[in-house]
Amino acid sequence: MAIKFGRPLERKIGFVPVEADTNEIQRNPLDLTVRMRRNRRSEWVRQMVREHVLATDDLIWPLFVMDGHNSRMSVPSMPGVERLSVDQAVREAERAAKLSIPCIALFPYTDPKLRDDTGSEALNPDNLVCRAIGAIKKEVPSIGILCDVALDPFTSHGHDGLLRDGVILNDETVAVLTKQALVQAEAGCDIIAPSDMMDGRVGAIRRALDSAGFTDVSIMSYAAKYASAFYGPFRDAVGTSKTLTGDKRTYQMDPGNSDEALREVALDIAEGADMIMVKPGLPYLDIVQRVKETFAMPTFAYQVSGEYAMIMAAAQNGWLDGERAMIESLTAFKRAGCDGVLTYFAPRVAEKLKQQQ
Ligand code: PBG
Fold this sequence. Notes:
39% of the residues lie in helices and 17% in strands.
C-alpha cells in the first residue's frame, strides 16, 4: 500500500480576502522604517537570509536488521519503516550512499530464542549486528556505521543492563558493554554509541578500545538520554515492548531535569566521547541548545521513533502536511545547534534535498 504523506492544509482552507479601506491607508500609511516582511517577500530573498539550512550531511539513518534472506517486515507503529534481512540492509546502505547520507545506525531484532538474562548474544562476534556490519562494509565501504551499545535487544527482560533482584547493576553492566563495544569494533563499526546510561561506560569503553588498538574508532555517547514515552515504537521494532519489565527510570534521565544533562555531558566528554547526543529530540531542544552553547562539541539529537510516528500518523490522517512537518522539525534541530540528527526520515529527506538541487 502506498503511504499517503499528508496534504497541504492551505489548499483545503483557502484564503478569504479581507476588506480594507485602501484609499485611507494610502493617505495615511504606518510610519515604519523597519519592515521585517521585506526579507520574506519572495523565495530568493528567503533563501538568501536563511540562517540554518538542513543538508544531507546532517543525516544519520537508523536501520533495523533481522534474520532471514531477502525479507522485509513492516513495523506497524512506524509507517514506512521495515526490519530488514542483512542482504536488504546492504541494499538500503547502498541507497544511503548514493544519496550521500554519511552514516547509518544499526539496531538488531534479535530472535527471542537467543535472548537471555545476561544478553549474552551481544558478545557473539557472529551476531546479527556484526554480520550486518561485515556485509555493509564489504559492499558499501564509503558509508559510516554507528552501533548502539546496550543490552536491551539481547536480554529476555528488555533492560539495557544486567538485572539482579530488580536492580540494574552498574559496574557489572559496564564490564559487559565494554566487551560488546570490542566485538562491534572488531566487526568494523566506525562509531560506538553507548545508549545504556550506566555511569562510567564511556571511559571504560575508550580504554578498552585503545588497548585493543582501536584508537580510530569513535564514540558518540547518548550523553543526555531521558526516560521517555517516545521510545515506544522503537521497542516494537526491536521486540522489547512486550518483554520489558518495569521502566528505565533508574538509569535514564528524569524529563524534569536540565542542569543534570550538562553534568552527564561533561562527564562523557571527560571520559573521551568524540560526539555527544541528546535524546529524544524535539521535546528536548532546550537541552540541545544548552549543551551546544556550553561545550561546543559535535552535538547530535535523535528524532526518536515516537516523534517519527506522530508526524507519520498525523500525515496519514491528512491532519498535516507530512513532508513539510518533516523538514520543519529537522530544521528546528539545526536551529537549536545540532550538527546532525538521527532520523528515520533520512532517505526521504535526502531524496527531497536532491530534487531541489
Ligand atoms: C536502546 C535504545 C532505545 C532507543 C535507542 N537505543 C530505546 C530505549 O532506550 O528503550 C530509542 C530509539 C527510538 O525510539 O527511536 N538502549
